[in-house]
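To: structure subgroup
Subject: Chain for Friday's discussion

All,

I'm putting the inputs and outputs inline so they're searchable in the archive.
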Amino acid sequence: MNEDKQELLRWIERDKELLVSFLSQFVQAKSPNPPGDTREAMAHIRKTLDAQAFDYRIIDPKPEFPNLVASFEGQAAGKHLVLNGHIDVFPVADHETWEHDPWSGAVQDGKVWGRGSADMKCGTTSSIFTYIYLHRMKESLKGKLTLTAVSDEETFGPWGARHLIEHYPEVHGDCCLNAEPSSPFSIRFGEKGPLWLAFTVKTAGAHGAYTHLTESATKVASRLIIELDALEMIDSPAPGNVGAALERGRDAIDKAQGSGASSIVQKVTVNIGTVRGGIKVNTIPSECVVEADIRLPVGMDKNRVMAQVEEILTRFPQVSVEELVFNPPAWCDPEHEMMTILQDNVVALGRERPQPICSLGGTDSRLWRYHDIPAFVYGPSPTGMGARNEHVEIEEFLHTLRTHVLSAYDYLTR
């Protein structure tokens, strides 16, 4: 490890208390989405950048959804690396009971606690300080480094990274690095694509005692739900070198995303998220709405799935379907230069070599991949992500930062 990289690690070690304090206060800056207002969280970031006289832009197509973009260039021509992280978080349900207040940012037992600590204020903090530390070494770097701290990720909304990608091509770059919670023993080069469909069942309806007069919309819906499981049988071979990478990473997939994840990562999956029907126990429902979350593996064409949906609906004339959300599955080369850089730095930091895998859930990284820009996710464990008692291990947070700093340095010095 050269002197520059050793110096970067010394800065992180020296700033440990500052870094943990920044993350703790970041968690305290509430930014649940919905509703999605991130102005308080953005003010926390701006305070740190302003104190060090950094130049940046705030791009806010809606005032309550600000996005921050900052860039600097090295001393010579080279590649353009983009750091991306979001600042909105899941909301907190009123009925949830937490060991620590979900907005406390409590620092206890070697962890930072609270909503967004893992997803993904830890990762966004890593991106921010990767940018800050490498700015001090810009005379040693080639190319360009861009920081994007964005809103509106948790709902696949249009006002965050999607807005930047669509309207500000200067944030595209040659490669994107993201620190979403993913686990320290895996690097995500792709992700499944969500296809959310709403099925509406309509029947005549009647008094609950007069079942001879009409079908029940809820009973029709229950039969439809069972038939939708057939979508999981669609053959979905992995494209190119993805299949071999996923096979090698089976253990890492299960370790990162739960036992059994490797068996569904390359399959279509169906989850029935909501069922709404009926107004009273003694009426035959005239309407029922079923919302399905269908996840498409990398390489899967939506048209193949929708063709089977339409075939199923030929047996249900009472049902109509509406597409709510579709984000195509996204992936890049699992053997890309950045993959090797990340793996080598994780090993140099004393940890096991992380394996290339695909994610079951979605991230903003897909938006770069849609433009054929390689994007990689390496972050902490998703402990309590979206659930009660969300937290991040401080050492995992610092390890994520170390890995991103060293990897961004390597990418911009080659």
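Points worth raising on Friday:
The radius of gyration is 23 Å.
Residues 117-135 form the longest helix (19 residues).

D.
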